[in-house]
Amino acid sequence: MHSRFTIERLQARILDIPTIRPHKLSFGSISRQSPVIVQVWLKNGATGFGEAATIGGPSWNEESPESILHAIDNYLAPALIGQDAGGFEGALARMDKACKGNAFAKSAVEMALIDAVARTLDLPAWQLLGGKVHQSLPLAWTLASGDVERDLQEAHLRLTQKRHRIFKMKIGARAPEADVAHVSQIARSLQGKATLTVDVNQAWDGNTARRYLPQLVEAGVTLIEQPVAQWNVEALKNLTATLDGALIMADETVCTPQDAMMLAREKASHVFSLKVAKHGGLIRTRKVAAIAEAADIGWYGGTMLETSLGSAASAHVFSTLGGQHHGCELFGPQLLVDDIVEQQMPIVDFELRLPDGPGFGVDVSLAQLERFDRARQGLTAVHVDMAAHTTTPV
Which pLDDT score is estimated for 31? Predict the structure, then answer.
């Protein structure tokens, strides 16, 4: 073992950061984000940071900020203390042995290890991930206020500022007819000025998707994300084969390399939405991307609405990926009232510029971590005893 990379300790904490506006999805609306931030210390004195964010707690998948914190504190950290931080695959194997699943928790820890090792070597993280092929990536923005006028105002402002010309709309919470009408109004107004994507967030069944997706394509939508449930591969396959004029993108259905293989074999999507958290880290994101490239499937850089820390880590791995891509949506920091880094990644001419400093190229502010730390705010879970009609903190 290379002693200079020995892991001395790990610490995880939940932050609570309000969003600048409600963010509406098919399964509800969020007004704050609660990322879990991991800090690792190596024996050589280096430190690194990682992040796992969920959207709306456990409503995206099984993991919640609380379960991520629990898995790290009780299973992942004990499995790694005293081990070599530079053996990333070995660390993943140890975490897998200690704890099944829990991809989000593992991704935050792996991220912190990569950051710490890269900082020790005074290298940008992309150098440890295969080397970068993109200096910047086209950056999408999600229009998710649910109001046509507000969405259009937001879109035109972003176009004027030269920040975004790819817009993604979250639909699926209302009746399909209402969603199609809403998207069509916005698509008509943005025609020729921007590219439009919709994310149905698994809200439709196969027949609803077959009926309404052609209307969205007719309105000008070119990319459709996860129109049906995660398990409904047959419907994804059918839509991929029959829908003209737009591409089908898998998100919740493609988490592991095995999922990627299955979708490639079934020809059940044109594009994979890559998200570091759901794949279980940066290295496993590259494995899913490699399957996409081999199967002639495009990729898109997804987000779990991370702070600039998780967004920068994602940008580092996305910068190393070849193949056909559809930009990224690492806009999480812009949706939060404040950030946890000293300086955000710049957006220039509609593209996110990738940071080149050591590690992930962003400096985490310890003061901001303290400011948003849930434990410091005293926001503990509350146990409600219905029999006694009293509430007691636990």
Answer: 85
